[in-house]
Every structure is written in structure tokens, then in C-alpha cells.
Amino acid sequence: MSLSILLVIGLGIFLGFFFQTVTGFAGALIALPILLLVLGLQDAIAYISIFYLFSSVYLVSQEWKNIDKKIILKLSIATIIGVGIGIWVLTHGKPFFLKKGLGIFILLYVLYTMYAKDKVFKKPKLEFLIGLAGGFFSGLFSTGGPLYVIVVKNSSTTMKSFRATMFGVLGLITVIRIPTLYTAGILNMEQVHYSLYIMPFFILAIYLGKKAYAKLNEVVLKNGVLALLFLSGVMLLIR
């Protein structure tokens, strides 16, 4: 792998996991379009999943006491089913159409965040369906976080609890996704090897993200994330 490709991957991982650390989600939504500039869809998903494993181990251990374990348990069955279906589609689907689908998904999420009202989804059946869809997009694109936001936000009373519980949800997804990707032949040891070269970008993202979380204005940060996501979605549609 050339140095230029490693640098692009490093940039994507840095930006994705910086915002992931600050907000509790949206890491893959930001990182994936950047990685797709130099990688195929399956390889990009594999690299993001590897770093989700690293981030989950660290962030879940740091935020364990603030995580709402009941929400994690409630979403577990739907997540397991959804991730399995998503990875099957990733293995057998056509990358061109999958990339366009990701672009549409990102733009729909931006529109939802801008216009949807709070506390819409309260019924258990809807929560199961959202968990299933979140698992599907997590298996397919590693981008199910926004759907889980709907459920977790409705159940969390504070920003600290919301952020920590999102780390827990993404940790659950990672535990399911890593062995499934390896079994499907999407994740391999060569990718793990190259991930070591990208590790400094990841560590810097986690460090700066924790610093930023303590200082940044929440409204400004939210708008910045939405702007980046919008650009990412448009880029995927027009490429």
C-alpha cells in the first residue's frame, strides 16, 4: 500500500473518530466517504471496523458507569439479526449501487436531524424495527449510529448518558461485526497490519476529541457535523 493511500485512510480515520469521540456517533458516516476515495467498499468497512474495536474497548471502559445497560440489552437481538443481514448484503451486493445508497442514507439522516421532532419513537415495536435497521446499516456500511440515536436519545436524560450509551451500543455492534466480517472473508490480517501504521491518526483523534468534548459549543459542533455529512453524501452521489 502506497504512502498516499495510507495518508488518505489516516485522514478519514482521524476525522471520523474525532467526531465519534466528541458526539458518541457519526464516525463511520464521516470516515467512510473519505476512505472510499482510495479503497473498495469492503476494505473501507474492514478498516473502520478495526478502529471501532479499538475505540469501543477504550471508550466503553472510560464511560461504563454512565452507560444505560437496559437500552443495550433491549437492542441486542435486533442488532444481531440486522448486522448479519447487512454483512450478507455487503458480501453479495454491487459496490456502485451500495455507494449511492450510502449517499442517500447520509442525506436523509441530515434532513432528519434538521427537521424531525424529539421523542417520536416510543413504542417497543418501533424500537425493535429501528434496532434492526441500525444493525443492518452497521453491518452494511458501519453507519447505523444515527438510527440508534433515535432510541437512545428518547431514553437518555442527559447528554453524558446519551453519549456513553451510544458508545455502548457501538461496542455491541463491533463485538458482533468483527467475527462476522472475518468469517465472510472481508476482514483479514493484512488490514490489521496496515492499521498499525494508521494508529497514530486514531490515537490523536481520540485525544483531541476528548479535549474538544469538554470545550466545544454543542450547537456549533452539531452544525459542523451536519455540514460534513451533507458534503460526504453529495460526494458519494456525484462520483
Structural overview:
With 239 residues, the chain is mainly α. It has one domain. It is 84% helix and 0% strand. The two termini are 23 Å apart. The mean pLDDT is 84. InterPro entries: TM_pro_TauE-like, TSUP. This is Probable membrane transporter protein. It is found in: Cell membrane. The chain crosses the membrane at residues 34-59, 71-90, 96-116, 128-150, 162-182, 194-213, 219-238.
- Main sheet characteristics: none
Distance between the termini: 23 Å
What proportion of the residues form beta strands (DSSP E)? under 5%
Question: How many distinct folded domains?
Answer: 1
The chain-level structural class is: mainly alpha
Number of helices: 10
Total strands: the figure is 0
Order of helices and strands: HHHHHHHHHH
Which descriptors apply to this entry?
0% strand
Kindly summarize this structure in a few lines.
Keywords: Cell membrane, Membrane, Transmembrane, Transmembrane helix, Transport. This protein has ten helices and no strands.
Draw up the topology in text.
Blueprint: H1 3-23, H2 27-35, H3 41-63, H4 69-92, H5 95-115, H6 124-141, H7 145-155, H8 159-183, H9 189-215, H10 218-238
Helix pairs in contact: 1-2, 1-9, 2-3, 2-10, 3-8, 3-9, 4-6, 4-8, 5-10, 6-7, 7-8
Transmembrane segments: 34-59, 71-90, 96-116, 128-150, 162-182, 194-213, 219-238
Membrane topology: Multi-pass membrane protein
Protein name: Probable membrane transporter protein
